[in-house]
Amino acid sequence: MNTQATEFDLIARYFNRPVPKDMLGGGDDCALFSVPAGKQVATSTDLLLEGRHFFSDVDARTLGHKALAVNLSDLAAMGASPIGCLLGLGLPSMDPGWIEKFAEGFYALAAEHHCHLIGGDTTRSLNGITLSVTVFGVVDPLHAMHRRAAQPGDEIWVSGYLGAADIACRMLAGEIPTQPELLKKIRHALELPVPRVALGQALARHAHAAIDVSDGLLQDLGHILKASGCGAQILESTLPIHRDLLGLPAHLLRRAALAGGDLYELCFTAPVSAHAVIDEIGRELSIPLTCIGTATLLNDLQVVDAAGCIVPDLPAGFDHFRM
Ligand code: ADP
Ligand code: MG
User: Fold this and answer.
1) Computed over its alpha carbons, how large is the radius of gyration of the chain?
2) Tens-digit pLDDT profile for residues 44-65
3) Ligand nearest to the CA of 132
4) Distance, CA 72 to ligand 2 centroid (Å)?
5) Which of 68, 121, 134 to mutate to test the pocket of ligand 1 (most atoms within 8 A of CB)?
6) How far is the CA of 56 from the centre of ligand 2 (A)?
7) Number of separate domains in the chain
8) Ligand 1 pocket test target in 13, 118, 122 with most atoms within 8 Å of CB
9) What is the CATH number of the domain that holds 272?
């Protein structure tokens, strides 16, 4: 631990990279940026707490990536383009090596998405690491994908593959037996999620409602259905389960696919007439997009198994306050 470095040295050294000329970044009381005429600002914030959202021994670089990724994912789910972000850091000690790696991971993803770090706050914490990231993006208000916009008859889609982050998390937490070879292949899904920013922007003109799957497919889709006042039927046999998981017991796979969180794929609904365009978007971006069911008038979320039977006792998603 370097006891000589002050909070201000730390910020100046690790969190004050240049921003474009038309922005005012860190170093003043506020950051300043403008948005193009006719666009709306999309903003979102996410907290990450040591021991709750990440393991204490997680690699600092991957943590820097993930802290920003989960926020960019919210912009993606709205169809917004990132502009900038704020970083709140509560650190129990000042370990320059750790901070440097954290900043590297954070800035690498920020650069990829032109999401400039324009300010933040830094403080010593009494207990564990606390990270708070706020992102700003812009979106065309006519095309932002609201949760309330699903319509009965819409097809329901999900991007990417399901289950890997959940299984990796359960292995690392000791909840299920660790298979080292499998864990090696899938832990990046948990630690280095890829926010679907370009996909969200491409979908915005064609999809109705969207959400990023942070708390489990059924729970997050449930938010869309509730806000939109409709139901859904999901066909279990269509769920794009991560192929490395296919040897695992069926009950684990079902829970991982339907209720596994920390996924950061997009679940969205779109009219049947947009099916071919959506297939084309997936091909262009090289992102698998799978139609997994249909939104219904009936106000209920059903999963139908391969034999055509309704799956009873659906697994629940993640809830921080569940007792
Ligand atoms: P204030 O006293 O106004 O809260 P601070 O001393 O906390 O200001 O921060 C000084 C400057 O450094 C501000 O412009 C702030 O946005 C920036 N800053 C502080 N912490 C961070 C951080 N973790 N990442 C990026 N910028 C930061
Ligand atoms: Mg401050």
Assistant:
1) 20
2) 999 999 999 999 999 999 999 9
3) 1
4) 23
5) 121
6) 25
7) 2
8) 122
9) 3.90.650.10
Model pLDDT for residues 5-42, shown as the tens digit of each residue: 677 888 889 999 999 999 999 889 999 999 999 999 99
CA of 191 to the centre of ligand 1 (A): 27
- Ligand positioned closest to the Cα atom of 133: 1
Nearest ligand to the CA atom of 90: 1
Do 98 and 21 have their domain in common? yes
Residue 323 resides in a domain: no
Ligand 1 pocket, residues with Cβ under 6 angstroms: 11, 15, 26-29, 87, 89, 117, 119-122
**Does residue 318 have a pLDDT over 80?**
no
Q: Whose CA is nearest to atom 19 of ligand 1?
A: 121
> Is residue 201 located within the same domain as residue 116?
no
Sheet holding 231-235, edge to edge: 209-212, 266-270, 155-159, 289-296, 231-235, 301-304
Measured distance CA(162)–CA(124) in Å, rounded:
37
Ligand 1 atom nearest residue 89's Cα: 23
Q: Residue 43 falls within a domain, yes or no?
A: yes
Residue reference for tokens 């912009």: 75
Note whether 154 and 135 are same-domain residues: no
pTM for this entry? 0.94
Tell me the torsion sign for CA atoms 66, 72, 74, 77. Answer: negative
Are both 155 and 300 inside the same structural domain? yes
Q: Does a structural domain hold residue 316?
A: no
Looking at the structure, do residues 64 and 155 belong to the same domain, yes or no? no
Domain hosting residue 97, numbered range:
7-139
Q: Residue 1: inside a domain, yes or no?
A: no
How far CA 191 is from CA of 146, 148, 184, 213, 222, in Å, comes to 27, 30, 12, 15, 25
Burial class (CB in 10 A: 0-12, 13-18, 19+), 122: middle
How many Å lie between the centroid of ligand 2 and the Cα of residue 57?
Answer: 27
| pLDDT for the residue numbered 130 | 97
CATH classification of the domain holding 36: 3.30.1330.10
Do 224 and 79 fall within a single domain? no
